[in-house]
Amino acid sequence: MVKVSQKFFEAVKLANRPAYKIAWEANLHPVILSKILHGYDRIWPNDRRVIAVAKVLGLNPDECFEDDTR
What we know:
This protein is mainly alpha-helical. The chain is built from four helices and two strands.
């Protein structure tokens, strides 16, 4: 299973604007971003929603995903 990386999670939480504004800038509903961040919404490698948020935050898409197979 793929999840967002700790770096992505921290970038959203430590950004200079609220997460809901980041979501709107990425053309994403804030509830969807929240579900992605907290693992309630399944994401795939190279998920376009995560990549859109990464662009808003200035992150490289490769830094945004990690594999959670244990």
